[in-house]
Amino acid sequence: ISVNAHGGQFRKLPQETGRIARIVANNISPEIELIEITEAKKGLNLASMSFLRKDLEKAEKYLTSTDEIWMNSEIKNYAPQQNAVFFENKDYFPRFNWSVSPGWRQHVGGPDGFYLYQLFASIKSSYAIKPGLLLSSQLGLDIFNNFDKLKFVAESQLPRVRSNIKEYLQEGENGLYRLQLDYMTNLSENFYARLSAGLFEIMYGGLSAEILYRQLDSRWTFGIDVNQLKQRAFDVRFDFLDYEVTTGHFTTYYD
């Protein structure tokens, strides 16, 4: 039997996996011998861990050790099993979460003041529509800032990519800092994909796509992304300015 675990109350994955495995073992028919648990994050299936049911039952009666369970267990990249019996929690999706916390923005080293800052209330929300499809947002409400001290305007004939920061900090003290829709999926055993649309940050919104290569037993991960972006209006709401650009990046991670 295969079970997808979409995150739980335990910080440590082995503890979470052990609890799930014992619950499953106590609620399945006797002929099922192998239990596979797949860790899922934001709808992406990541590592799969498989256990022999008999080892878990022995452990419950203190007839075996964790080392013996480990000897008969396997951790691997997620790959669907052809003959597996799948259990789906119909109540998990759609799923809504929200939070309110203090937020902090800063501007360091400018000619109008070495350290300028803002304290704001950050209201975040996420709506998991279905596995891999997530709508998330962040709303900022100003509590205190000293961005009114910003006076400097950079003189340049080049397009203003980031140099309008003064206008964004002053006019966008209350605003919709982020509103984006993400779709993430497993392309194959080692390849993952993401498609995004919306308002990505206070200055830019648009469309984005990424492909990520990740091997379970490797410390290295590689990705490539392409983005079609347009500059947002200074009040950080739904309007846009004329400037737009296409960007692309190659990324690498080492853990």
Task: Characterise this structure.
By secondary structure, this protein is mainly β. The chain is built from four helices and 13 strands. The strands form two sheets. Strands 6-7-8-9-10-11-12-13 form an eight-stranded antiparallel β-sheet, with no helix packed on it. Strands 4-3-2-1-5 form a five-stranded mixed β-sheet. β1 (2-5), α1 and β2 (34-41) form a beta-alpha-beta unit. The longest helix is centred in the N-terminal third of the chain and has 13 residues, at 13-25. The chain is elongated and about 75 Å long. The mean pLDDT is 88.
Topology of helices and strands:
Layout: E1 2-5, H1 13-25, E2 34-41, E3 44-52, H2 53-60, H3 66-71, E4 74-77, E5 86-87, E6 95-110, E7 113-130, E8 133-145, H4 165-171, E9 175-186, E10 191-199, E11 204-214, E12 220-232, E13 240-254
Parallel strand pairs: 1-2, 1-5
Antiparallel strand pairs: 2-3, 3-4, 6-7, 7-8, 8-9, 9-10, 10-11, 11-12, 12-13
The total strand number stands at 13
Molecular shape? elongated
- The computed structural class is mainly beta
Biggest β-sheet: strands ordered side by side in the sheet: 6-7-8-9-10-11-12-13
Query: Can you give the mean pLDDT?
Result: 88
Strand content: over 45%
> Unreliable segments (pLDDT under 50, ≥5 consecutive)?
none
Number of DSSP helical runs: 4
Major sheet: 8 strands, antiparallel
Instruction: Give the topology string: H per helix, E per strand.
Output: EHEEHHEEEEEHEEEEE
Helix content: 10-25%
Radius of gyration: 24 Å
What is the rounded distance between the termini?
31 Å
